[in-house]
Amino acid sequence: MKKIRKERKKGVNSLIILAAWSISKHCNACVFEGVTPSVNTILCALKEEFGVFCLAGAKKLL
């Protein structure tokens, strides 16, 4: 992380938080709603959330 420029660091941090949120949300769905665990489902949800973040104006994600 030290070699990443300051302006990019915010974007990387946001992506890490977004990934953790997607995993946590899927885990809760598996436990409380009986959803079958699936990496593919997490990746699809992460892609959707990423798109929403970009539409909402998140700039340094890319």
UniProtKB/TrEMBL annotation:
This is Uncharacterized protein. It comes from Eleusine coracana subsp. coracana.
